[in-house]
Design goal:
Elements (H helix, E strand, L loop, with lengths): L1 H9 L7 H13 L5 H5 L5 H7 L3 H14 L9 H17 L4 H8 L7 H21 L1
Length: about 140
């Protein structure tokens, strides 16, 4: 389950930001076989893109949706857009914000950093991915 894998990657051993954690964990859980170069794409998305804006859990999760459910490019279908909207709506409902600064106020602590936010995002993402993969 994705929830278990995010706990591993968000720990001190890997020292990943929230966006990186989502991609690394999804790569392992869903067998994406991503390259090291692909993982680097998430480096700038942690900490709300470095300015405490949109949470890295969100950007990481929607990158996973894009990888899994886009055939070649986004304009082929509204499918990924619909899944992205679902993820964002569910995340906002569960966490009461989409922005890093507000989420940190609500959930972050020095001991586990933002692990509980990462876990919430992982559950939401895993539910969507599992449902959609079962349709295929």
């Amino acid at each position: 389950m994705l929830l278990d894998v995010v706990k591993k990657y968000y720990g001190e051993e890997y020292d990943l930001n929230c966006a990186e954690t989502m991609l690394y964990a999804a790569n392992e859980e869903y067998g994406l076989n991503l390259s090291k170069e692909t993982f680097k794409t998430m480096a700038a998305f942690g900490g709300g893109m470095g300015v405490e804006s949109t949470c890295g859990v969100i950007t990481g999760a929607i990158s996973v949706l894009g990888i899994l459910f886009t055939k070649e490019r986004a304009h082929e279908s509204d499918y990924v857009k619909t899944l992205t909207q679902e993820f964002i709506e569910n995340f906002n409902k569960e966490c009461n914000s989409l922005n890093c600064d507000k989420l940190k106020e609500l959930y972050r602590n020095d001991e586990v950093r933002c692990l509980n936010i990462v876990e919430k995002g992982a559950v939401i993402l895993d539910n969507i991915v599992t449902r959609e993969r079962n349709k295929q």
